């Protein structure tokens, strides 16, 4: 079964009150979807964030495979006006590109709430993600924080 099949099955189970949690084959379907991705778009114009994300993807996920990793060329700052800026940035990329995978990183919620990194599919569905505390709390560089957020999001699905 593909990712779409697992999503449909889970929806139907939930609607009947039968859903008892995630299954290994669902996690494997997410992992396979990401590993098969041929076009990845990072929802940022920040070259430092893009460089770190690209390095991690090439080193840990795609390991020498042919994959197009690019960033969007439109401002994502408008997403900071929304309730979930990281998700809004990702949806901007979904709506404006033909990416198989979108990686978005931004503020979690209100100012001071920390940051969130999300991995989305071509329909804007969240495949994995991670969060970090506010930078005034953890005091790490943005590059180190982005790297750790992406690695955590990948570890959550077995990559």
From TrEMBL:
<protein>
    <submittedName>
        <fullName>DUF3236 domain-containing protein</fullName>
    </submittedName>
</protein>
<dbReference type="InterPro" id="IPR010254">
    <property type="entry name" value="B12-dep_deHydtase_bsu"/>
</dbReference>
<dbReference type="InterPro" id="IPR012019">
    <property type="entry name" value="HcgB"/>
</dbReference>
<dbReference type="Pfam" id="PF11576">
    <property type="entry name" value="HcgB"/>
</dbReference>
């Amino acid at each position: 079964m593909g990712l779409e099949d697992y999503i449909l099955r889970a929806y139907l189970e939930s609607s009947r009150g039968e859903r008892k949690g995630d299954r290994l084959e669902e996690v494997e379907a997410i992992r396979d979807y990401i590993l098969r991705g041929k076009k990845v778009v990072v929802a940022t114009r920040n070259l430092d964030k893009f460089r770190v994300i690209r390095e991690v993807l090439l080193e840990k996920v795609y390991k020498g495979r042919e994959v197009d990793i690019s960033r969007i060329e439109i401002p994502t700052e408008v997403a900071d006006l929304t309730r979930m800026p990281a998700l809004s940035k990702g949806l901007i990329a979904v709506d404006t590109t033909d990416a198989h995978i979108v990686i978005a990183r931004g503020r979690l919620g209100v100012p001071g709430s920390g940051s969130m990194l999300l991995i989305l599919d071509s329909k804007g569905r969240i495949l994995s993600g991670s969060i970090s505390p506010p930078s005034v709390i953890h005091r790490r560089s943005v590059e180190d924080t982005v790297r750790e957020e992406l690695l955590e999001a990948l570890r959550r699905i077995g990559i």
